[in-house]
Amino acid sequence: MALAAPSRTALVRRARRMNRELARLYPGARIELNFTSPLELLVAVILSAQNTERNTNEVTRVLFGRYPAAAGYAAAQPAELEKLIQSTGYFRAKARTLIALGGALCDRFGGEVPDTLGAMVSLPGVGRKTANMVLGGAFGVPGIVVDTHVARLVQRFGWTAQTDPVKIERDVAALLPRTEWTPASNRMTWHGRRVCHARKPACGACGIAHWCPSYGTGPTDPAAARKLVKPGLFA
What's this model's pTM, rounded to 2 decimal places? Predict the structure, then answer.
């Protein structure tokens, strides 16, 4: 016989308990991209698509010096920009996006990255995930960042049954205090990269296994599970 779904109150309590434990496990969880301004973070997030944070940081170390402002991207020569970002993958499309982004920022926002979700998602190449990441990381505006890791984990945690990112964002936001939206997203991303992998989660080495209804999806033997744990970029 299938187990009854937890009550709303029980689900909220479990979600918040798991979030507190993730905070203990990953006290330094943050965006694993290097940046010093909202524009730098926005560009880095765009370049990190289908790419690693480590490689993105190597590319932006040079790129940010060459293009310190939105006007630089707007006026960039495609061939030069493509060469600088080639290793990030899909570099021609990304170069077009960055040039269009620079133009939009200069034309509509005085060269500055806007600090609202509505304005942010109106920019070329910016969806809700990117917008929430930049708003939370650069402006301190709370948001649930539904990347592939967060989407996978909250389904395994039983926090949502949705697959649409906007609906996932809505369900998770309803479970956690608003002040925790951004840090909780960072913690889940870190946990997803290090422990709760897509194909074979390290259940036996998971610090929140006690509260996870999907415990047993991966190896539960501690020794076997520890071999699956991966270090993060800043671990």
Answer: 0.93
